[in-house]
Design a protein that fits this description.
Elements lengths: L6 H37 L21 H8 L4 H15 L10 E2 L4 E2 L18 H9 L3 H7 L8 H4 L3 E3 L13 E3 L1 H8 L15 E3 L12 H23 L10 E6 L6 H11 L3 E6 H4 L6 H13 L4 E6 L2 H4 L8 H19 L3 E6 L15 E4 L5 H10 L6 E2 L5 H7 L4 H17 L4 E2 L1 H14 L7
Parallel strand pairs: 6-9, 6-10, 7-8, 8-9, 11-12
Antiparallel strand pairs: 1-2, 3-4, 5-7
């Protein structure tokens, strides 16, 4: 046991070691297959029937994630070779150096091997051609039969385990590089659950909150709406799959949150994920939308493709950047914008999880889109009673208000959102700490409110 590791880290380290033991067996087997394929194809010193004499490693007693996946789909020789081949560039790239040689007769790489050399990775990156060659050699009949491994109906593709990256237009399909899904790469190696980060290939970020439901002050109507969402998260799929009524409803649950910034829309989404043990991924549609034809759909596709079959909540911010009121179609730009909207709507319709779209201005959303949502929740500026609760909840027992501070008066005079009140208190607490005190002064509160009003472009009168 390594010093300083938590129980979860110790467990994960143990799972990772189990994976490594299973993978070592597979790598040794793969090496034998590669050597034999060379002898069959280029030396002629062995026959195709000799391939059957190489025993596939016995993983029946292995308890690794890798062995579990092999056993789940009852993978045979062909599937296991393709699976380990997709992993090799990530775990032992030197094993493919045998294929990274030139045909001396023509001073070019052997076309039979397929493969490419990436810009930074100096090793051999296998393609579909690499897999087919190792399995079939020059046998055309077997080659044609093996194409099923990359067909959309094969579990490799359907379950998004691995796939062939799209080759350049006009080039053979098998020239696409063999890619393993990052989720499975993580699970089959380090035994970690893959949680993607925001980057060029995944325009979404995971959001969370340290707050709880008690920190969120909602109207009765909003509380009822949130409860409906929570009920769907707990029972929706059971209703869809196990009850006759499920045939009458569509898959998934689509919700629209509207209201000014700071009224709790993002916090509500985060708490829904936290309370239901689900990851929430936020997509800023204003950043995803591109002026280049096809780029918006491409960006959105990356999110939905990654989210399929996962226990995620998708939260789309700035929804009015795509769902704004439509003008009459007069040119190709208008037609393309409509195509983007149609694409997003279709992907939302097909997604079987919870999708929350968020807009600061309800009036900016085209009315034709409202029927697409099972629920529309309006997060308005809190009224006096809710502002008073927010002020009372804003302070912790480490601090106290000066006797001159009357929360009822602050709640009455200043229309502030929950987020703005927290910003004001943050300002005040830092001021009090600067003085070496733990008391919140009225003068500091008023200064903090002035800052908030100035940010909003509003005048401050007290």
């Amino acid at each position: 046991m390594r010093y300083g590791l938590s129980k979860n880290e110790i467990h994960q380290d143990s799972e990772s070691k189990l994976n490594s033991m299973s993978l070592e067996k597979e790598l040794e087997w793969f090496h034998q297959v590669t050597i034999l394929r060379g002898k069959i194809t280029f030396e002629g010193s062995c026959n195709e029937s000799d391939m059957e004499q190489i025993q596939i490693p016995d993983l029946s007693t292995d308890s690794s994630f890798y062995a579990s996946l092999v056993k789940k789909y009852e993978m045979g020789f062909e599937e296991r070779l393709v699976l380990i081949l997709s992993l090799i560039p990530h775990i032992r790239p030197s094993l493919l150096d045998l294929l990274n040689i030139k045909n001396q007769s023509f001073d070019i790489p052997f076309s039979e091997f397929g493969g490419i050399k990436a810009e930074k990775h100096k090793g051999f990156l296998p393609t579909g051609e690499t897999a087919i060659f190792l399995l079939a050699g020059i046998d055309l009949s077997k080659r044609f039969s093996l194409l099923r491994l990359f067909h959309r109906d094969h579990y490799f593709v359907k379950e998004k385990i691995l796939y062939l990256d799209k080759s350049v237009s006009g080039e053979p399909k098998l020239s696409g590089t063999l890619q393993i899904n990052p989720e499975y790469l993580s699970l089959l190696t380090t035994a970690e659950i893959y949680k993607p980060d925001f980057d060029m290939d995944f325009p979404a970020k995971r959001i969370s909150s340290t707050q709880d439901w008690d920190d969120l002050v909602l109207t009765t109507t909003l509380e009822e709406g949130v409860m409906e969402i929570r009920n769907w998260l707990h029972f929706g799929k059971e209703l869809k799959e196990n009850f006759k009524f499920g045939k009458k409803i569509k898959s998934g649950f689509k919700v629209l949150f509207t209201g000014p910034p700071g009224t709790g829309k993002t916090l509500t989404a985060s708490l829904l994920g936290k309370s239901c043990n689900m990851d929430v991924y936020s997509v800023d549609l204003s950043l995803v939308v591109s002026k280049y034809i096809g780029e918006t759909e491409k960006n959105l596709s990356k999110v939905f493709d990654m989210a399929e079959n996962k226990n995620w909540i998708l939260f789309f911010d700035e929804a009015d950047s795509l769902f704004g009121k439509r003008s009459q179609t007069t040119d190709s730009h208008d037609r393309y914008a409509n195509q983007e909207v149609s694409y997003l709507l279709q992907r939302i319709e097909d997604f079987d999880g919870l999708v929350i779209l968020c807009s600061n201005f309800k009036n900016n959303i085209d009315e034709a889109f409202f029927r697409r949502f099972q629920l529309v929740l309006d997060f308005d500026i809190p009224d006096y009673q809710h502002r008073l609760i927010l002020w009372k909840n804003s302070i912790t027992d480490e601090f106290q208000f000066h006797k001159d501070v009357h929360l009822e008066e602050l709640a009455e005079k200043f229309e502030l959102t929950g987020a703005s009140i927290i910003n004001v208190m943050h300002f005040c607490i830092l001021r009090s700490m600067e003085r070496g005190e733990r008391e919140i002064l009225l003068s500091d509160i008023l200064s903090g409110i002035k800052i908030e009003k100035t940010k909003q472009g509003k005048s401050f009168i007290y």
